Queue: 2 jobs
Job 1
Amino acid sequence: MMIVNEKNTGTKIDYATNGNYLVLGADDDLMLNLSKYERETEKQIDITRDMDGMLLIGTGQTSYFVAQVTIPAKDGTFNIDRCTLDLWSIEVPINEEQAAPENEVA
């Protein structure tokens, strides 16, 4: 099981894991094969939600920061248990109380 951290209070996005896959959203809105993103250095994947409620990878023109996945540097066979999923409230826009990660522009 992934390491999961809730970064603030409020409702978080539904998520599940299946093997190397992380599935986000109540209707399986976004599925990521995390082993595909493993590199020689740590990799972070930002998950955001736009005004229409669609999940996106990256920040771009989004209103809500939903999650950040951290995949540690490659160390043998991929193991999802080494990955971290940080979750933010899906109810708070980035420009209000929600604090984006340090590497994000709010």
Job 2
Amino acid sequence: MTKIVFDCTQVSFFLHQFIDGEADEATCAAMRLHLQGCQECEQSLGAGQSVKALVARACGCEEAPANLREKVTITLASVEIEQD
């Protein structure tokens, strides 16, 4: 099997799926490989995990509307593109 190699842009794109356990195994492997050698992406991972934990504590068992994730993902992607 061929290994997938991610750069920082790809890691940023898949970061939330990775944190939420929604990425496939090949993506997870590429993420872990990149994170081992990239301190900036590792810091982004830590920040994302912290935000997820804070939201979980603040919101408890409340469920977000079904389309919220899609809206947030689209917004984050546009913000990340503007920063590049």
